[in-house]
Amino acid sequence: MKYVKNFECTVCHKIYDKNELIYTCKECGEKGILDINYDYDEIKKIVNKAYFKNNTDFTMWRYKDLMSIKDTDFSKSLKVGWTPLYESNILKEELGLKALYIKDEGLNPTASLKDRASAVAVVKAMEENAEVISCSSTGNAASSLAGNAARMGLKTVIFVPKRAPQGKLAQLLVYGAKVISVDGDYKDTFKLSKDAINHFGWYNRNAAINPHLVEGKKTVALEIAEQLDFNITDWVSVSVGDGCTIGGVYKGFFDLFSIGLIDKIPKILGVQSDGCSPFYTAFAEGCPLVEADENTIADSIAVGIPRNPVKAQNAVSKSGGTWITVSDKEILKAMKNLGSKEGIFGEPAGVAGFAGVINALQQGIIKNTDSVTVIVTGNGLKDTVNALKAVGKPIILKPDLHELIKYLK
Ligand SMILES: *Cc1c(COP(=O)(O)O)cnc(C)c1O
Ligand SMILES: [Zn+2]
To answer: Among 3.30.70.100, 3.40.50.1100, 3.40.50.300, 3.40.50.720, what is the CATH number of 85-111+213-391?
Structure first.
């Protein structure tokens, strides 16, 4: 919190004091998502390359000075962050890219990038002495909140749409959350959770509404930059639902650019499913966002009304990136490719960012001379039903060597 200057409404730019306990702008209401401003001149004095070199905390808390939290004892929390950034072995050559890096966020404690936001939600709730945290989620925000809260002894009430994959539901129940499976889509789920949070006064971990969450998510960008020794790639690709993740990715690079640790912000590729693409549609048609259907196997990005539109749109426009869509078929193909050629297993929304890169290459948006980082946002084990659609079923043989030899011929 030391280096936080103030909060600023992304819509009307009204400034709020950093000690005011508000979620959204008082003038703009729910649409007035706040952004957190930092005193980069002060941060610059302590955060430099040596600061990172001497940092022995290999979790997201290594970036605590760049975040909107109080400095506290983080040693008891789950180990979120410092996931591997792999240089591609095979796909780089196949695609003919100058460089390809894959950030595997599925290796976080509850197996998605959402842990970076949920860990912050838990810390903030504890700062405010809240005992119950609540959110609505397409699945991963929920399971990560449940896990991170369980570890710190906080209770969670979670709202998920009934379509949420079994893996994510199982996580929620194992982590001991009170789970409300809403008979409706994500839009209905969000509405009910909002009403309930207002009614009961729980701590709110809802995407976008809580400005601290993007500050947690941005640590993925800080890490990518650090793991690349601050020589960042031309492009960074990420899948988009509510828009908090992509907003966080931009914010992380913006922080590093502002303190002079990187000399450019990478172009950010925002990838949506063609079955649910409100951002892409608004971009392609040059019109305001309109509500979209939620028809895709990539459940984590099936968000018909994105809750963080301004941060998401700024991330793409200010970085000089673009929006793109991919089909479910392309997502499944990307899943198989990443799994069989790099050993990285992502859920459908997790690999959509990679599918977007292939598409962008075909369209000439990304060039062969470009370097690219892909963020795999969630683990494939969360949704094996869709994974099996990508790869089919194995052969069944009698326990007989001759049969096996015949088959392997
Ligand atoms: C939540 C999520 C996203 C998208 O993040 P938003 O902030 O909703 O845009 C992408 N992939 C996975 C696996 C997610 O869980
Ligand atoms: Zn406002």
So the answer is: 3.40.50.1100
DSSP result, 334-372: HHHHHHHHH---B-HHHHHHHHHHHHHHHTTSS-TT-EE
Ligand 1 atom at minimum distance from 347 CA: 13
Of all atoms in ligand 1, which is nearest to the CA of residue 248?
7
pLDDT above 80 for 221: yes
Task: Give the span between the Cα atoms of 271 and 246, in whole angstroms.
Answer: 10
Say how many Å lie between the CA of residue 215 and the centre of ligand 2. Answer: 19
**301 close to ligand 1 (CB < 6 Angstrom):** yes
Nearest residue to 202 (alpha-carbon basis) of 218, 230, 227, 178: 178
> Whole-model pTM?
0.96
Report the alpha-carbon angle 222-112-9, nearest 5.
55
Residues 6+ apart with CB under 8 A from 402: none
- Length of the chain measured in residues: 409
118 lines ligand 1 (CB under 6 A): no
Considering only the top CATH level, what class is 113-211?
alpha beta
CB contact at 8 A, 101 and 85: yes
Confidence of residue 313 (pLDDT cuts 50, 70, 90): very high
Q: Does 114 sit in the ligand 1 pocket, CB within 6 Å?
A: yes
Q: Over the stretch 227-271, which tens digit does the pLDDT of each residue have?
A: 999 999 999 999 999 999 999 999 999 999 999 999 999 999 999
**Residues 275-312 as b or e (16 or more Cβ within 10 Å = b):** bbbbbbbbbeeeeebeebebebbbbbbbbbbbbbbbbb
> Is any ligand 1 atom within 6 A of the Cβ of residue 143?
no
Which token pair is 265? 């912000």
Pocket lining: 331 vs ligand 1, CB cutoff 6 Å? no
